[in-house]
Carbamate kinase
Amino acid sequence: MAQKVVIALGGNAILQPKQQATYENQLENVRKSCEVIARIVKQGYEVVITHGNGPQVGNILRQQDEAKEVVPQFPLDVCSAESQGFIGYMMDQCLKNELQKLGLNNAVTSMLTQTEVSREDPAFQNPTKPIGVFYSEEEANRLAGDKGWIVKEDAGRGWRRVVPSPMPKSIIGADVIGSLTNQGAIVIAAGGGGIPVSRQADGTLVGVEAVIDKDRSGYQLAQDVHADVFMILTDVQNVFVNYGKPDQKSLGTISLKEAKQYADEGQFSAGSMGPKMESAIGFAEKGGTAVICSLDQADLALDGKAGTRITQDL
Ligand SMILES: Nc1ncnc2c1ncn2[C@@H]1O[C@H](COP(=O)(O)OP(=O)(O)O)[C@@H](O)[C@H]1O
Ligand SMILES: NC(=O)OP(=O)(O)O
């Protein structure tokens, strides 16, 4: 039987920190990602894709802010939906095109997805999710003062605005995503972690202002669709211990025990590698294989020849 892989693609792979946020730049990055994903499909894997939206949703908020005298501002959950919509569109189109180049005609569909969170989540008191572009410390502090933002340093790469990132409780429509996948479709879902919503006392859903971590939602999605492999594609080839220090060490295939030990030591930053490793460990604990690697090495990493790989039994 074909192996099922959930691929979580980083928002930074769609827009790199030093690139201008033009549509053309993002489309080209998505095209390159889809070229790799199409090769994975060609290898015979069943694929479900999720993606980040940190840079994009931050830019949408900034556009709104700059235009607030002219057009009313929308809440953050709606901005999340906007980013999911435009990234889903680019991905759906690029993947169809890249599959066609390989002579494949799998059905591809992008599903606008809501993810349930709790309004009581402690994340609302401690924002950790970096969004938008990077600033110098001075510029970030100025913007924080002017606009009431909370800003934090992001893994040695500069300063960014941060927003609350509650834990996903459930992916709404995960059963539909699973059955489409089982029928051979490639589904793009829960982009940007999914649009954050909470369930009210009467059972109805309502939007919540937050940005969910796509690695955490991807982990939930991977369990929901009974994936064999959960693969997180980002902008580093491997996970490191002592990251950014002279003695940093790249991690290849590691045991669950080793991964947990490094996480307990605080080796992985909140808002970047932290949620990736937490999700990878969770997935491996449930018996699956978790892989964290760079986009360009995704197919090698699936074969165990690149990236950081965590499995229950070594
Ligand atoms: N221990 C670590 N090993 C590798 N990368 C790390 C580590 N800690 C923090 N990082 C940072 O995590 C970043 C990837 O996380 P993030 O920016 O959230 O990616 P994405 O947008 O691709 O999901 C890397 O670019 C790196 O700077
Ligand atoms: N929503 C989310 O996790 O986005 P990034 O992957 O861009 O940080």
Observations:
- The chain has ten helices and 17 strands.
- Residues 10-11, 52-54, 192-193, 211, 213-214 surround phosphoric acid mono(formamide)ester (ligand 2) (CB under 6 Å).
